[in-house]
């Protein structure tokens, strides 16, 4: 029961991390910048994401525009896109593999393949969390460098958006879920003894037990026993000697 509870806990943690990774990938709040004129009513917010950039005005107007050209994007944005998409796909694979290997499911119930499946799902969740963590850390470093760069105009400087913080939380949840699944799988494998060890215990007995039943003597035919008996009276008389000659 404890192992099943650990598997459920790890799976739901990884599922929450997967959901947060998808939301963070789609949101445009990776970089944000606010511009306020002399009148507070004309405040404008600029946001950039992996797929679009948006403009928000204090009058209630919210406009977004998708990036039209993939090749025109900077290399760091292209790499961030690829890493986040791979992280989402890895989380999908981890969810499917973990569900099939959990004890609460009927797939391969009672089989030894359950524990390796849970371990594989945990490793996939760990890989997905690492990919998401690398992406948001890279974006954070770039935003901070550009913000403190004196060569960049203040109107072109952005700050860290909410999607980056969501990516950090999602990466931590995916890593935690993967570690819990791997831990539960290692506990199950330690409790199971391999079947070949049980079969081999009866064949490899100590020498003391092998000497309890000594081997039987070899079979000898009757012809080999003819010369082993003592001579009788009949045999003595047939050889030319009589018993009356010695009495």
TrEMBL record:
The chain crosses the membrane at residues 79-97, 117-140, 160-183. Gene3D superfamilies: 1.20.140.150. PROSITE patterns: CLAUDIN. It is found in: Cell junction, Tight junction; Cell membrane. It comes from the Eukaryota. It is a multi-pass membrane protein. One of its GO terms (cellular component) is plasma membrane. InterPro entries: Claudin (IPR006187), Claudin_CS (IPR017974), PMP22/EMP/MP20/Claudin (IPR004031). One of its GO terms (molecular function) is structural molecule activity. Keywords: Cell junction, Cell membrane, Membrane, Tight junction, Transmembrane, Transmembrane helix. Pfam families: PMP22_Claudin. Claudins function as major constituents of the tight junction complexes that regulate the permeability of epithelia. Belongs to the claudin family. This is Claudin. It comes from Maylandia zebra. The lineage of its organism: Eukaryota, Metazoa, Chordata, Craniata, Vertebrata.
């Amino acid at each position: 029961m404890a192992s099943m509870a650990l598997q459920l806990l790890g799976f739901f943690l990884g599922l929450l991390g997967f959901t947060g990774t998808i939301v963070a990938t789609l949101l445009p709040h990776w970089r944000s910048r606010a511009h306020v004129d002399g009148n507070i009513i004309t405040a404008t917010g600029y946001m950039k994401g992996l797929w679009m950039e948006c403009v928000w005005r204090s009058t209630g107007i919210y406009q977004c525009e998708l990036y039209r050209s993939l090749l025109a994007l900077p290399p760091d944005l292209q790499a961030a896109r690829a890493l986040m998409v791979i992280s989402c796909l890895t989380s999908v694979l981890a969810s499917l593999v973990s569900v099939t290997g959990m004890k609460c499911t009927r797939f391969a119930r009672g089989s030894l393949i359950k524990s390796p499946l849970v371990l594989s799902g945990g490793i996939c969740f760990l890989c997905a969390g690492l990919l998401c963590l690398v992406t948001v850390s890279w974006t954070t470093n770039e935003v901070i460098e550009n913000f403190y760069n004196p060569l960049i105009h203040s109107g072109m400087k952005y700050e860290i958006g909410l999607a980056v913080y969501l990516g950090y939380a999602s990466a931590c949840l995916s890593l935690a879920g993967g570690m819990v699944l791997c831990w539960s799988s290692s506990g199950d494998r330690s409790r199971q003894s391999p079947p070949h060890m049980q079969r081999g215990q009866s064949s490899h007995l100590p020498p003391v037990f092998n000497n309890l039943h000594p081997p039987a003597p070899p079979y000898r035919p009757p012809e080999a026993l003819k010369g082993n008996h003592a001579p009788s009276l009949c045999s003595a008389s047939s050889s030319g000697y009589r018993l009356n000659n010695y009495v």
